[in-house]
């Protein structure tokens, strides 16, 4: 923790990139750094200066620079969502930009709603986004912390507030407190506000010792029952809760309220800039009151360090990240999971970070998305299409191309030799020549997309029809000669011919009379004897309304019935299997490849078809179909491949809105 009396003035130059104007938060930090408001990093708090590698290099470079210390403080009562990603990227980004430190701190003050599953998921998500809080590996890492580690200190401050006449034990129930809260014109009331200090102190200690049942007493701050800011109307500091805690076990049966604990946690960790969303703006006076009240009567020169003023961070509020077609309420998301409207917290339709990751979104794309939007003080809603366009652009640059047929229709090329197989060279990624080419087998029997054939096509249908000719990607031109149907009249097969002069998809030479044949469609395909079967899950937006629940008051009424389509019989080119076999080991069948780029802590990279994925999730573009990723349900050993659609190639929702 920094010395509050220290105010040395460091020399500082702006550290933010010149490519964009400074955000209002960066302007505050720049001004603080120039004034020396928070002092400079010293060997005592810039650690680990003796560590090897990037963490140690960063710590040594930090020495003497202005202190910038941020944090992300989630409650472990659910999975993080896409809005949390904005805060994580912002706080870690500021610490990194200003050679500072970033803490991950769990506000674990309510054991009734907290679970180890949520703790583990939060750690995983924060690391995945690139915010490495591990001081052994993270260049800007400040460490991982727990509010529960400060329970003793926060309790001691509670007793101190009683001694100062600034807190009292109240016997009102939660319902009674609510009824007595008053109105803007009528003050709140409490019959215990003038309880003698010794009585309050005795009752608080009895509460701590487990002598009273849940709900019988609370510790309340003695502030202002007539305040226009209702947060200051003698808020509750401690309540009785006989619940085991995931970190402290059964040691405590009283727990601090979030508002009481929050500012003290920042103080104890030496946070300089306590950055939070706008809904906490009205809570700032309360956080300030708690620290000012503890500091009241303290002196920086007191020989007892525990009696000196405690650190007082600066809170700065910004507008949260809201997306249309999305609900991020933890309570509602839990309802979706518990009532089985989705497949779990990491269902790819969920707005959780885990859901986006499983759907195939990359951490880099999410960071880019929030960085492009910037930081403001005005709440608003961002169109979901902007996020989809960001991931499209990212995956277009980075994913290898593959061919797959979702709804196969058999094609037999009658003038192609039965036993013959040719291997065509297809580019892995036209955006990145370094990713090279792959070999794709071509044979007499193929699969094309059922939607790419029409027996009686309309005028502007340029794909395959009887008597029509199309190009097969990277292979040959084919013409449909006959249509085979079953007894019910359903089309089961197309009999086609191919032009051997069009190998590689090239145009044939002109005819003797100079006529040049042309085709207007290029189709994707797979060789039937070589095809790999797969289950493909087509995910779409979970809601079909921009503001779920606005129409009826019930958000569930706007669930999109077409948000998931499972296709069990898709056929993929064999390069998928080659990729997975080259990097397979148990589980999802993926393992690291030697020489891969350094991963975010907790993840092991894989390299598939020249693309390295730090989070071990293989991603592809299925030509003409969209971007897909390999799902965790894949089992290479069992020959089971599952793909999740990340996003379509084009914005289908824009056409729907139009």
SSE arrangement:
Layout: H1 24-35, H2 53-62, E1 69-72, H3 82-97, E2 101-106, H4 116-128, E3 141-146, H5 151-163, E4 167-170, H6 174-179, H7 197-208, E5 218-221, E6 236-240, E7 254-256, H8 258-268, E8 273-277, H9 284-295, E9 314-318, H10 330-338, H11 353-359, H12 363-373, H13 384-398, E10 401-402, E11 404-405, E12 408-413, E13 422-427, E14 437-442, E15 445-449, E16 469-472, E17 477-485, E18 491-499, E19 522-523, E20 525-527, E21 532-539, E22 564-572, H14 575-582, E23 606-608, E24 611-613, E25 619-622, E26 626-630, E27 642-647, H15 652-657
Helix pairs in contact: 3-12, 8-9, 12-13
Question: What structural keywords apply?
Answer:
Glutamyl-tRNA Synthetase, domain 3, 7-stranded mixed sheet, Ribosomal Protein L25, Chain P, Rossmann fold, 27 strands, 658 residues, 24% helix, disordered N terminus, 4 domains, alpha/beta, elongated
Q: Main sheet, how many strands, which sense, barrel?
A: 7 strands, mixed
In the CATH hierarchy, what is the architecture of the largest domain at level 2? 3-Layer(aba) Sandwich
Strand order of the largest sheet: 10-25-26-27-21-22-11
Task: Assign the CATH class of the largest domain.
Answer: Alpha Beta
Amino- and carboxy-terminal Cα gap: 55 Å
Mean pLDDT: 91
What proportion strand? 15-25%
Radius of gyration from the alpha-carbon trace, in angstroms? 31 Å
Helix segment tally: 15
Number of E strands: 27
Question: How would you name the CATH homologous superfamily of the largest domain?
Answer: HUPs
Tally of distinct domains: 4
Would you tell me which CATH topology of the largest domain applies? Answer: Rossmann fold
Q: Pick out the low-confidence regions.
A: 1-18, 585-600
Shape: elongated
Structural class: alpha/beta
Percent range for helical residues?
Answer: 10-25%
Assembly status: single chain
């Amino acid at each position: 923790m920094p010395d509050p009396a220290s105010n040395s003035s460091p020399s500082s130059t702006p550290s933010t990139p010149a490519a964009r104007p400074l955000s209002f938060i960066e302007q505050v930090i720049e001004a603080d750094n120039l004034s020396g408001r928070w002092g400079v990093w010293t060997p005592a708090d810039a650690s680990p200066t003796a560590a090897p590698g990037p963490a140690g290099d960063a710590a040594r470079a930090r020495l003497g620079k202005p202190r910038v210390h941020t944090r992300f403080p989630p409650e472990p009562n659910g999975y993080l969502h896409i809005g949390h990603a904005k805060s994580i990227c912002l706080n870690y980004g500021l610490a990194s930009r200003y050679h500072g430190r970033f803490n991950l701190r769990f506000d674990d003050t309510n054991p009734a709603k907290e679970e180890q599953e949520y703790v583990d998921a939060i750690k995983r998500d924060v690391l995945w986004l690139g915010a490495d809080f591990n001081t052994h590996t993270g260049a800007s890492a400040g460490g991982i912390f727990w509010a529960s580690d400060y329970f003793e200190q926060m309790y001691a401050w509670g007793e101190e507030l009683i001694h100062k006449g600034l807190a009292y034990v109240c016997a009102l129930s939660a319902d009674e407190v609510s009824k007595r809260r008053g109105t803007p014109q009528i003050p709140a009331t409490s019959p215990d506000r003038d309880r003698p200090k010794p009585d309050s102190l005795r009752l608080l200690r009895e509460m701590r010792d487990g002598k009273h049942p849940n709900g019988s007493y609370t510790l309340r701050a003695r502030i202002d029952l007539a305040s226009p800011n209702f947060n200051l109307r003698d808020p509750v500091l401690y309540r009785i809760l006989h619940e085991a805690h995931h970190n402290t076990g059964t040691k405590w049966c009283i727990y601090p309220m979030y508002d009481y604990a929050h500012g003290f946690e920042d103080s104890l960790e030496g946070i300089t800039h306590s950055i939070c969303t706008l809904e906490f703006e009205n809570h700032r006076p309360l956080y300030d009151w708690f620290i000012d009240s503890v500091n009241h009567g303290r002196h920086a020169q007191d020989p007892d360090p525990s009696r000196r003023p405690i650190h007082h961070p600066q809170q700065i509020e910004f507008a949260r990240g809201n997306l249309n077609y999305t609900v991020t309420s933890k309570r509602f998301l839990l309802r979706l999971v518990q009532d089985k409207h989705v497949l779990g917290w990491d269902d790819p339709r969920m707005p959780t970070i885990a859901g986006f990751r499983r759907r195939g979104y990359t951490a880099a794309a999410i960071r880019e998305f929030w960085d492009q939007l910037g930081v403001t003080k005005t709440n608003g809603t961002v169109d979901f299409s902007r996020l989809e366009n960001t991931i499209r652009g990212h995956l277009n640059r980075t994913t290898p191309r593959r061919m797959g047929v979702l709804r196969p229709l058999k094609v037999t090329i009658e003038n192609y030799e039965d036993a013959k197989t040719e291997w065509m060279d297809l580019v892995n990624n036209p955006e990145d020549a370094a990713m090279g080419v792959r070999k794709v087998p071509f044979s007499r029997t193929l699969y094309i997309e059922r939607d790419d054939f029409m027996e009686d096509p309309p005028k502007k249908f340029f794909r395959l029809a009887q008597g029509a000719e199309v190009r097969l990607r990277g292979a040959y031109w084919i013409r449909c000669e006959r249509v085979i149907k079953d007894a019910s009249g359903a089309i089961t097969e197309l009999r086609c011919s191919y032009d051997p002069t069009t190998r590689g998809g090239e145009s044939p030479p002109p005819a003797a009379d100079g006529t040049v044949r042309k085709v207007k469609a290029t189709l994707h395909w797979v060789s039937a004897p070589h095809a790999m079967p797969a289950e493909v899950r087509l995910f779409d937006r979970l809601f079909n309304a921009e503001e779920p629940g606005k129409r009826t008051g019930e958000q569930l009424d706007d669930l999109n019935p077409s948000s998931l389509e499972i296709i069990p019989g898709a056929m993929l080119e064999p390069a998928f299997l080659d990729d997975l076999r080259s990097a397979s080991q148990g589980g999802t069948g993926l393992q690291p490849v030697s020489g891969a780029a350094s991963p975010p802590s907790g993840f092991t990279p894989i390299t598939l078809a020249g693309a390295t994925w730090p989070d071990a999730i293989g991603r592809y573009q299925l030509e003409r179909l969209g971007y897909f990723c390999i799902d965790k349900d894949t089992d290479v050993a069992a020959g089971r491949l599952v793909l999740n659609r990340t996003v379509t190639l084009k914005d289908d929702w824009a056409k729907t809105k139009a």
